[in-house]
Design goal:
Layout lengths: L5 H8 L6 E6 L1 H6 L2 H12 L6 E4 L11 E5 L2 E5 L2 H4 L2 H7 L28 H6 L4 H6 L4 H11 L11 H9 L7 E6 L8 H8 L1 H15 L3 E6 L4 H16 L15 E6 L9 H8 L23 E5 H7 L10 E8 L5 E6 L6 H7 L7 E6 L5 E4 L16 E6 L4 H15 L5 H13 L3 H18 L3 H4 L3 H9 L8
Parallel strand pairs: 1-2, 5-6, 5-8, 6-7, 9-13
Antiparallel strand pairs: 1-3, 3-4, 9-10, 11-12, 11-13
Helix pairs in contact: 8-9, 10-11, 10-12, 11-14, 16-17, 17-18
């Protein structure tokens, strides 16, 4: 590569870390189980090489915490449950005694989680692992060429609706005579969903790169990143990355001898399930009551502060950085929890090969022991065990929250709990949701006597609610009633 190339200059200035290191997986998951204690033990044993023991975030394997990884080039060996297994094996592996070393050697990970848990948060580290390479290529193309490329690979939003990214961006571009705003939805208020905060903790530079690609494609006046108010570590990691990128001339465009003229702001969410709804985010940022807005007008026409606004979630913008991958990336981030030995964050293929059963098996559970999956939480649906041989589809995965329910799971109780949750979380702005969610919870106390009323009420809520909290509140209820009829027989 030419020494004058912008990325070459950056990589020269921000030197990559040593190739041989021990990575201590901290972040929210690791800190919750006291992993720093084991990092301190390893540093004490290695003494003069203690500087090669570095803190990183979770690699998504929350089930393995407290954990550490010995990294030597493409060699990556993770040591799990240090509280049960100690640190001696970690130290011996780092010193060269790793047993079957070929088992852990590879050509490097791919996908949007490829750097997660493998970088120390420094700009030099992520640059050495490919950060901002896609942006560099994008800047050599016109905005139209970038949008056409996104359209060709069929990239869709990852927030649940799966709307084509290229189409949304093209809508905003039609307002060529107005200043436009990008809002990044990192609220992630759904129970059981934690993918976006993992991305912000583990690789915030990928989000920043996606934002800058979006800016080149659409042309924004400013960006507002709306982070869940409880995701404090995610916000800290994001703000550090933004500062580092600014000092390096990345977010300003100076690195490429350009002037992006873009202001990036970070805001904390107001809290509550409804705050993940797009128009609620706009009101919250403006300092108004966090309630949904009536549509039309839509945000791409009249959004934040009355300006045309594009709203993308974190995973969507991270996925944008893969637009030059060949073959195109066909994966979805999944927050897997429930009755599985290996709960955590997974990047699963949705290319027609992986099935529900395969995903369950990868998490360490025999699919035959599982009654159902709850996909999408309070707005989701149940996947019956008879469907486990179906292949994963992007549209079926919603926002990516999946709870595994074993054979003893009480589907009726879970359904009632979901209805009660939606009742509590209703903002009360519209009658169909405010009154309907309470009525639905009451009707579920006697399903057999109220089945017709339940279906009629769900139809009203679906068609008339102001936002999707009410509009989709009946989805898990109908899913349960239709797939687990026998469990509601005596209710």
């Amino acid at each position: 590569m030419n020494a004058l190339h912008p990325l070459a200059r950056l990589r020269t200035k921000y030197v990559a870390p040593p190739i041989s290191r021990i990575l201590i997986h901290r972040g929210t998951a690791g800190d919750a189980v006291g992993v720093s204690e084991y990092g301190d033990r390893i540093r004490g044993i290695l003494a003069e090489k203690a500087h090669l023991v570095v803190d990183v975030c979770s690699d998504g394997a929350n089930w393995a915490a407290p954990s550490a990884t010995v990294a030597q080039g493409t060699f990556m060996r993770r040591f799990e449950r240090l509280d049960l297994n100690g640190v001696d094996e970690v130290v011996e592996c780092f010193r060269g005694n790793c047993g079957d070393a070929e088992k852990y050697a590879g050509t490097g990970e791919k996908g949007i989680t490829s750097r997660m848990g493998r970088n120390d948060g420094s700009l030099g580290d992520v640059l050495s692992q490919g950060a901002y390479t896609a942006l560099d290529r994008v800047l050599q193309l016109s905005p139209e060429e970038v949008i056409n490329q996104l359209s060709e690979i069929g990239l869709t939003g990852r927030g649940g609706a799966h709307f084509p990214v290229a189409q949304k961006w093209q809508f905003a571009r039609t307002h060529s005579d107005q200043q436009k705003i990008l809002v990044v939805n990192a609220e992630e208020g759904e129970p059981g969903v934690f993918k976006d905060r993992h991305m912000l903790e583990g690789d915030p530079h990928r989000l920043i790169e996606g934002i800058l690609i979006a800016h080149h494609s659409v042309g924004f006046e400013s960006v507002y990143i709306y982070v869940n108010g409880q995701a404090k570590q995610a916000r800290l990691s994001l703000e550090k990355a933004l500062l580092d990128a600014a000092q390096a001339g990345i977010t300003s465009g100076e690195c490429w001898e350009r002037n992006f003229q873009l202001t990036i702001n970070v805001r904390s969410g107001a809290g509550g399930y409804v705050c993940g709804e797009e128009s609620v985010i706009l009101n919250s940022i403006e300092g108004k009551r966090p309630i949904p807005r009536y549509k039309p007008p839509f945000a791409t026409d009249v959004g934040l502060f009355g300006k045309p606004t594009v709203i993308n979630n974190v995973e969507t913008l991270c996925a944008v950085t893969t637009l030059f991958d060949n073959p195109p990336l066909r994966t979805k981030l999944v927050s897997l929890s429930g009755d599985v030995p290996r709960a955590g964050l997974y990047e699963v293929p949705v290319d027609g090969a992986m099935t529900w059963a395969g995903m369950i098996a990868n998490s360490g559970r025999n699919p035959q022991e599982i009654k159902a999956l709850l996909v999408g939480g309070p707005s989701g649906e149940f996947i019956h065990f008879q469907q486990f041989d179906d292949v994963l589809e992007m549209s079926k995965l919603g926002a990516g929250g999946i709870v595994v329910l074993n054979s003893a799971a009480d589907i009726q109780h879970i359904t009632n709990s979901l209805a009660a949750y939606n009742k509590r979380e209703s903002c009360g702005e519209c009658t169909p949701c405010r009154e309907g969610s309470e009525r639905l919870a009451n009707l579920l106390e006697n399903v057999q006597g109220n089945k017709k009323k339940i279906y009629e009420l769900v139809e009203i809520m679906t068609e008339s609610s102001l936002c999707q909290l009410g509009g989709m509140a009946g989805r898990p209820v109908l899913s349960a009633l239709e797939q687990f009829k026998q469990e509601f027989g005596n209710s």
